[in-house]
Amino acid sequence: MTRVDYYNDPNAPKANSIAVAVSAFIQDDEGRILMIRRTDNDLYSIPGGQLELGETLTQAAVREVREETGIECVVTEVIGIYSDPDHVIAYDDGEVRQEFSICFRAEPTGGQLRTSSESKEVLWVPTQQIDTISIHRSILLRLNHALNKNSVVYFT
Q: Structural domains in the chain?
């Protein structure tokens, strides 16, 4: 399924659903950021996805990281809660979802990089190369908040 993110776009379709999602910002010992290249929109992103019934938010983050990247992790803190109604995600099945995502900071604990049905590329990106890859503005916002470790938890 393909997706298109609209952010502060007056021509964006109206949201018709909302779902709880999580994402994880993870850095290795060299400060590189764990990122995926998504199969649904071809953009780079931090790993994440939808909360499933019967799991906690942190369990969902750990599961999504494992599923999309092969990396095991432990969640250490909240970076932000993103619920901007001006960010909607349109899927090719007609769903238009309002953003509602909790972004966590996590630490890698093991595993090996591998792709999945949701990630066509998995890599550790040096922070100075973030500007050289194609990333949606909503993910850049999370990266900026995560890299500014002196800030408080962000929320909309």
A: 3-141 (3.90.79.10)
- Local confidence pLDDT in tens for the 156 residues of the chain: 899 999 999 999 999 999 999 999 999 999 999 999 999 999 999 999 999 999 999 999 999 999 999 999 999 999 999 999 999 999 999 999 999 999 999 999 999 999 999 999 999 999 999 999 999 999 999 999 999 988 799 998
Q: At residue 124, what is the residue type?
A: W
Question: Which residue is catalytic, options 67, 72, 118, 121?
Answer: 121
The CA distances from residue 37 to 8, 40, 99, 122, 123, in Å, are: 23, 9, 20, 6, 9
Q: Per the structure block, which two tokens stand in for 61?
A: 């983050």
pTM equals 0.96
Task: Please indicate whether residue 121 is annotated as part of the active site.
Answer: yes
